[in-house]
Amino acid sequence: MKPKLTISIFKTALILGMPLLSVGFNIPEPPAKVKWTQLFNGKDLKDWKVKIRKHDLNDNFGNTFRVEDGNIEVRYDQYANKFDSQYGHLFFNKPYSHYLIGVEYRFVGDQIKDGPGWAYRNSGVMVHGQDPTTMTKDQEFPNSIEVQLLGGAGNGERSTANLCTPGTQFVLNGKVIKNHCIESRSKTFNGEQWVRVEVLVLGDSLIVHYVNGEEVLRYERPQLDPVGGAAEGVLLKGGSISLQSESHPVDFRKVEIIDLDKYAKDPAKLKKVVEMLMSEKRVAKN
């Protein structure tokens, strides 16, 4: 356990910005380009699984998740005007550990009647999540780290790319945080504008949220809720990725990823690749 923890701390320190000494060291250069892989093909939901509360795995109740006009649409028009706490998630069929994921989303239309007030213009990208085959039929959310996506209500500030923790917790500024949700530093996005959120996920060491190219939140040591009175739980090294259905219509036009797993055992090279990736400010076009 100790060697793994030492590597994890060293990796985190490098990504957090510890300067690298170049004199006397031969640090290999990263490849000239790293390419985005499209998780959503723009045509259908091939390679995705659906899990909606109160329904079996892959029962896409009410045609909640669909593809129209090149977007993943989350809709409730076939719910008989009643949401009934049927929270849903669309899971990609492959787990990841070290990666940069980018999504472009927008909120549209009106929330379905009886959707909870907190779910108004609310969705999410779940990372380091549990396997959907292990979820119970009545389970609301997968145990995961939720990158909460919020739209403005038109009457004040409401940040996006926040952090919520169904069945999990994390470390921020050296302290274990047990709050269910914390806000990011993002600005508010009103109306039906497209927004790009990126999430840098580095195994059990570091997660960083970005909105339209700006860093808005970072934290460390994602983990399951502790058991038996322990202060910390089992560290999350990887897991599923899913998109959320929480009662307000939302579109996703892009879901793409850069797999960084091949750099995971080389912190110096990983830092170089991350610096290269984040030197470009990617902003959603409207």
Fold and architecture overview:
It comes from Pedobacter nyackensis. It holds the Pfam family 3keto-disac_hyd. With 286 residues, the chain is mostly beta strands. The protein has one domain (2-278): Sandwich (Jelly Rolls). 9% of the residues lie in helices and 34% in strands. It contains two helices and 17 strands. The protein has helices at 2-16, 267-278; strands at 37-38, 48-52, 65-68, 71-74, 88-92, 98-107, 122-129, 145-150, 162-164, 168-172, 175-177, 181-182, 195-202, 206-211, 214-224, 240-245, 250-259. Strands 1, 3, 4, 6, 10, 11, 13, 14, 15 and 17 form a ten-stranded antiparallel sheet that branches. Strands 2-5-16-7-8-9-12 form a seven-stranded antiparallel sheet, with no helix packed on it. The protein is globular, with a radius of gyration of 19 Å.
